[in-house]
Amino acid sequence: MKNAALYVFYTSPRTCSRRLRLMRSLSPDTSFYGICTERQEDLFKFSPVLDELDDGWGFPYVSPLWHWHNLDKVVCTWFVKRGMDLAFDRLLVLDWDVLLLNPVVAWTNTVNEGHSKFIDVREISQPELNLWTKT
Questions:
Q1: E-state strands within 10-128
Q2: What gap in Å lies between CA 125 and CA 50, rounded to an integer?
Q3: 135 CB contacts (<8 Å, ≥6 apart)?
Q4: Pick from 34, 29, 42: which is nearest to 78 by CA?
């Protein structure tokens, strides 16, 4: 199984590039792809991040809040426009503020065909109040 990580970023280029470098060192057999949701004219600021990726793509800018609330659409658009041409069997989607201290395979090896696994940093005790679960 070929594992890949999809890193979504839009702020803090220095932090993002350092996190990617560390995560790559822990997962040398994993491909790291990226989506930048910042304005096209500001993409040059993210060259240190793009240098750490196997493939990077700029999502058409809408607004930070729209991108955050519609991450599923961002990822699906990336897959149709770019991801379907890249080699992977399992994909772990990471937002810029997530730092994995284990290899990517530690997160993906328990996902079977037809299943999903979500990393959340806090317990969702009231899912009706969570923005990710609202319709």
A1: 31-36, 55-58, 90-95
A2: 36
A3: none
A4: 34
> What are the structural domains, with CATH classification, of the chain?
3-133 (3.40.50)
CA dist list (Å): 3 to 47, 72, 75, 119, 126: 24, 19, 16, 16, 32
32-65 pLDDT, tens per residue? 999 999 999 999 999 999 999 999 999 999 998 8
Q: How far is CA 135 from CA 19, 22, 69, 125, in A?
A: 32, 36, 11, 18
Question: In this structure, what token pair is assigned to residue 77?
Answer: 């658009």
Q: How does pLDDT run across 121-132, given as a tens digit for each residue? A: 556 666 666 555
Stated pTM of the model: 0.85
Residue whose pair of structure tokens reads 């979504």 in the numeric block: 8
- Tell me, rounded to whole angstroms, the distance of Cα 55 from its chain centroid: 12
